[in-house]
Write a structure and sequence with these properties.
7 helices; about 230 residues; tt1808, chain A; 3-stranded mixed sheet
Length: about 230
Amino acid sequence: MATEIRPNSIATAPPLRTGDRLTRDEFERRYHAMPDVKKAELIEGVVYMPSPVSNESHGAPHAKLIGWLIAYESHTPGVEVSDNATVRLDWDNEPQPDALLRIVPKCGGQSRDEAGYIANGPEWVGEVAASSVSYDLHDKKEAYRRNGVREYLVWRVEDRAIDWFVLRGGSYESLKPGEDGIYRSEVFPGLWLDASALLAGNARQVLDVLNTGIHSTEHEAFVGALA
């Protein structure tokens, strides 16, 4: 059942602070009382409130990741892209993924809609991280794994690297690119990525490779199954 946030409880809520250990209900109560806060996450019961991010290390990579996903969505009825949407994973985890891609509930997706939020793990999540030391590759990765996020991509901007994990047998394994260097999603047929082109800022090459995936027989069959 969705939590009801009462006006009086919002008015008396203390502020969110990084490092607070809260229940999900209390996290939401405090978050609603701080409309000026644009991003806060509850990961394994701990509050994270990222500091302002730069265009180079986050804003521009984030936009490119979203653009790639929206191009896929536009050719794949039955899937949905979302940007920084709060996801109710479980009672200790409520992240705001930089990007997510899901099969919509009416088409058999594993997530559901709950009081305007996404509940349960979507099929695919992407995060833009500074480096390999980020919590995106540690506590958050574990929360996504435990809640059944089937594929997880982390763009490590400072390291100039992309990690793509796929859930197999309850564990995350690295998704290996093909001999041509192209990553091919196992969950979303046709979602192909030229990681080298993405890291180099070659948006045209990224979209050309995606377009090839979108016109594959696997993607055609997937769209038919969703319909």
